[in-house]
Amino acid sequence: MNKNKFLTILLLAISSTACSKPEIDCAVFETQQNTPYLLPYEIGTAQKVYASTEHYRKSNNGVGLYAIDFPMPIGTKVLAARAGEVVSIREHFQDDNNIDLEENYIFIKHDDGTVARYFHLTHNGAFIEQGDIVKAGDIIGLSGNTGQSGGPHLHFDVQKCGPNLPPHYNQLPCGQTVPITFKNTKKHLCGVKTGVKYTATKL
């Protein structure tokens, strides 16, 4: 499935299931000078994003409010957005299975207790092991199209604690996502924007 078709399917799904978008308070986002987060793909590459409020649902108390989708081909290198400890990995599911809760992932816990989640990774696509300590910018795996997915992409979010393991991915209180600003790209004062392409730059 090409990127354009994936984006069309994603937009249709959003329009049919999402409630009206919540108002976002830009003050909750860290400045680019202070944020510890880097874009989760290689320097010099660019990805168009589907961002935060597109995942908002009243039915799940808005736990996906600050989640981000990066459409990218299967096998694209995924980088750690922030330093931390690998606390959970799953990589045995096959691409294109399109089955809910059967997606591969890597979860990384940060020193403040938050947990970054990298979803829909490819079969046997993890480059690290549980218990490893990674730095921001380390290659941790390869993107894929596992689980319930409209096409190849990386789903990235950060939960306020955890890890929440399947099938309880969004269990509260840890299920609430936190707002993310990325240090190594162009200015985005209120989070990255849907449909905008962001290039990962060298600091």
TrEMBL record:
Superkingdom of origin: Bacteria
GO molecular function terms attached to this record: metalloendopeptidase activity
Record's keyword terms, sorted: Signal
KW Signal (keyword) present: yes
Gene3D superfamilies, A to Z: Glucose Permease (Domain IIA)
Domain (M23ase beta-sheet core): residue spans on this chain: 67-162
PANTHER family membership: PEPTIDASE M23 (PTHR21666:SF294), PEPTIDASE-RELATED (PTHR21666)
Protein name: Peptidase family M23
Species per Swiss-Prot/TrEMBL record: Pseudoalteromonas denitrificans DSM 6059
